[in-house]
Amino acid sequence: MNNDLDGISVFMAIAEADSFRLAAERLGVTRSAVSQALQRLEDRLGVALVQRTTRSVRLTEAGEKLYESARPPLLDLAAALQATRELRQEPSGMLRLAVSSIAESFLSGPFIAEFLALHPAIDMDITITDETFDIVAAGYDAGVRLEEVIEQDMIAVPVSSRQRQLAVASPDYIAARGAPLHPRDLLDHSLVGWRPRPDTAPYRWEFTEDGRDFDVAVQPRLTTNDMELMLRTACAGGGITFGMEETMRPYMARGELVPLLEPFCAPFPGFHLYYPRRQHQPAKLRALVDYLRRWNRRPDQPDS
Hints:
By secondary structure, the chain is α/β, with parallel strands linked by helices. About 35% of the residues lie in helices and about 20% in strands. The chain contains 10 helices and 14 strands. Helix 1 (about 10-15) packs across helix 2.
């Protein structure tokens, strides 16, 4: 009796590579073997799955439906097999994370250094990015973002205490220009703002008054995607800037920056490690999540 699953891995490789040659290289077989396996699958199903020409390969309507339906359970099956293999060995492999540039507590050093010391078989590849994208499609195991921008279908574990954003300026700037008393007064000041890319508008500064959230569409004298430049400019008296209190705290402790508009800066949920909700998680990711939960229970953590 023929097995209907024979050839499925070959078909999936063709669908993802858009090429018989690349599919053969990925599977470690000849192009002829790929072609024959696909032909046998199509013969059993009685329908063409792939349209081939001398220059291109594309899925038929039936092929697209099969790919869309088969991909999720095959990914789950691959994860289940990997999880079974990992039961007999310590967590290992490359752990890829996409982390917000302002996740100070996660990026400060001790958290990552201790985790790597505890798991010598795990390597980490951390991309610092403030772009919003599908981490699964981009090949990441997990990400670190503010809770408010994490998709609802993700599992999220706190990696920081509650956060708040502050407006800050140097003592010299305040002495020369005065301090704003209300967020609307910011429009009369020199501002140092942030935006992730040149093709986006400057980030709107967010505040709370009488339990109501609102934002100010600022017009910065200086706009950049680099937080260090924002802070250095503000410390030099170049204007008022706005960002996470965690980021500003060392500068405020040294007296280089002074907090402004604090009554309008309400706390909100902080940064979370997030990852897809799957039945079988890779051991390397489970190790990171378990370590994070233990870290959060430490008495020296702000929200422990």
